[in-house]
Amino acid sequence: MGASPQTSVYICSKCKRRPAFYNRAYSGEYLCKKCFVRAIYRKAVETIKRYKLINYGERVGVAVSGGKDSLSLPNLIGEYIRPKILHSYIN
Ligand SMILES: [Zn+2]
Fold first, then answer.
1. How far is the CA of 36 from the centre of ligand 1 (A)?
2. Among 65, 64, 67, which Cα is nearest to 78's?
3. Which residues pair with 45 in a beta bridge?
């Protein structure tokens, strides 16, 4: 009963080396963990650029709720956007 997770049976559609752990339904791709993270980051950076959400020299405040999206954002900003100043307030 219940569907079994789609894992190691499939090989990553991107790198074609590592076992897939995620099936991207809208594209039909199977992604390994490394390619999944890259794809998410690339899409986020493209969205930030397309809609000019963050412009050069701007200060960025990040509110972290503890969910997967908000926990990923500081890492994404730190790695891909490289702000000069990043303050954090934790309460
Ligand atoms: Zn891969």
1. 7
2. 64
3. none
DSSP H or E run through 29: strand 29-31
Distances (CA, A) of 72 to 15, 25, 28, 41, 69: 23, 21, 24, 9, 5
- Closest residue by Cα to residue 21 from 36, 2, 43: 36
Query: How much of the chain, in percent, has pLDDT values that exceed 70?
Result: 78
SS3 24: strand
Q: What angle do CA 59, 38, 25 make, to 5 degrees?
A: 115
Cα distance between residue 73 and residue 81, in whole Å? 11
Please, which residues have CB less than 5 A from ligand 1, an ion? 12, 14-15, 18, 32, 35
User: Containing H/E element for 23?
Assistant: strand 22-24
CA of 30 to the centre of ligand 1 (A): 8
Evaluate if pTM is beyond 0.70.
no
